[in-house]
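Researcher: Next sequence.
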Amino acid sequence: MQTLDSPVFELNKESDYYKKIKEVKDSQPIINEILDQVASKLEIDPKEFLYYNAGGFGFEKYTDSYMKYQDKLTKNPDRNGVHTFKRSTNEFKEISSMINEIDKIKKTVNPFALHDIFGFNNLKASQWIGDRFFVGVKSEERTMGNVEERKNQSIEPVKDISYKEYLKLVMEHTD
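Model: Next structure:
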């Protein structure tokens, strides 16, 4: 298991944001099942299937899946190198409704909320350890400034944790 670099903060389990991301995390088996259904329907390797949302999904060039569906994918890749299914294809229509179920699960969490909590462009990485969520940041001062602004909220989103405590938790959860 990899560790975050110092400084590290823990998201408060009582905060609204924690409850939302925990719900999404707990829904991961459902998401995996949907992706397995997509892979079996398309008869592809699930590792080759890439998706953004119900409106954009496909494969990288030169994969077996790309070769199989090449004529049903966009000619030019997007900026990430993904050739997405053309919207007029039957595959797009069938798979889009399945991916829409994943979107419904994931839309409960604003992906930019962590920037509101820890400061814009201040995040380095995040990590789940058991049911605890930790975030590594670039600047402790910027994080504390943002946290101070949120003191008037009923529940503080961040709990202080020493790096030593964090490392002990990592060691306890290592196989």
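Model: The domain at 8-15+110-172 is CATH 3.30.70 (Alpha-Beta Plaits). The mean pLDDT is 89.
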